[in-house]
Amino acid sequence: KAGVTQTPRYLIKTRGQQVTLSCSPISGHRSVSWYQQTPGQGLQFLFEYFSETQRNKGNFPGRFSGRQFSNSRSEMNVSTLELGDSALYLCASSSLAGSYEQYFGPGTRLTVT
Amino acid sequence: SQQGEEDPQALSIQEGENATMNCSYKTSINNLQWYRQNSGRGLVHLILIRSNEREKHSGRLRVTLDTSKKSSSLLITASRAADTASYFCATDTGRTQGGSEKLVFGKGTKLTVNP
User: Fold this and answer.
1) What's residue A29's pLDDT?
2) Is the peptide bond before A61 cis (omega within 30 degrees of 0)?
3) Residue of A57, B10, B33, B76 with fewest CB within 10 Å of its CB?
4) In 3D, which of B112, B65, B107 has the Cα closest to residue B85?
5) How does pLDDT run along chain B (115 residues), one tens digit per residue?
6) Which residue in B has a C-alpha nearest to residue A10's C-alpha?
């Protein structure tokens, strides 16, 4: 099976802009979770989608949003970018919802200038 | 806030030596997982241990779980240069916490294996 893919791999944006990141899970996986990783805060949970429904959400402002499509592909959007949004954004898929084994994509490195 | 905290933050050893990393957590869990991350890349799942298990093996990896002490350890035996990576423990919040379960990661142990 193909692994989790994320596009784009690298992105440079300017403060105030918005960005959309994409994640394609492993075939057959219905759960997709998003994480933000920074040197200071480590890995922080953003949200989880399961069968097109947001199942869980982390402590991030409303500028961070996401959605999942019927084919389980997921997108996350960050509006009004801030310098502090610079991070590695990781997507993970799982065959089950919740705290089960997750398969991670390579991540999208976002740099906000 | 982080549920799990790894110790030490960094570990440097020689090839062939064993590496031990520890993880402590604060609240009850259903399971605890260990992941590896090579520099700037995605995480790779290593092993999952359930709250009713005390020890689990996978190849050169041995994981122990002590729920009374709320701690886990990951032992990598006969380490190789290719084991150089950051290692994270992840815990679920547990049904008793209310809400649905999600994984919460520690900040990781950076392991360097010198050839």
Assistant:
1) 93
2) no
3) B10
4) B112
5) 456 788 899 999 999 999 999 999 988 888 899 999 998 788 999 999 999 999 999 999 999 999 999 999 999 999 999 999 999 999 986 443 445 567 888 889 999 999 9
6) B40
CB-based contact (8 Å) between B105 and chain A?
A: yes
Whether B99 has its CB under 8 Å from any CB of chain A: the answer is yes
For residues B36 and A84, give the distance between their C-alpha atoms in angstroms, rounded to a whole number.
25
- Cα B104 from Cα B101, distance rounded (Å): 9
Per-residue pLDDT, averaged over A93-108, amounts to 86
Percentages helix, strand, coil for chain A (3-state, rounded to 5) are 5, 55, 45
Count Cβ atoms within 10 A of the Cβ of residue B99 and give its class: 0-12 exposed, 13-18 middle, 19 or more buried. exposed
Interacting residues of A98 by C-beta distance below 8 A, sequence separation 6+: A31, A48, A55, B92, B100, B101, B102
Write out the two tokens for A49. 């989608």
* CA A75/CA A69 separation, integer angstroms: 8
Task: State the nearest Cα–Cα gap between B109 and chain A, in angstroms.
Answer: 11
A100 within 8 A of B50, measured Cβ to Cβ: no
Q: What are phi and psi of A43, to 5 degrees?
A: -90, 120
Q: Is the peptide bond before A106 cis (omega within 30 degrees of 0)?
A: no
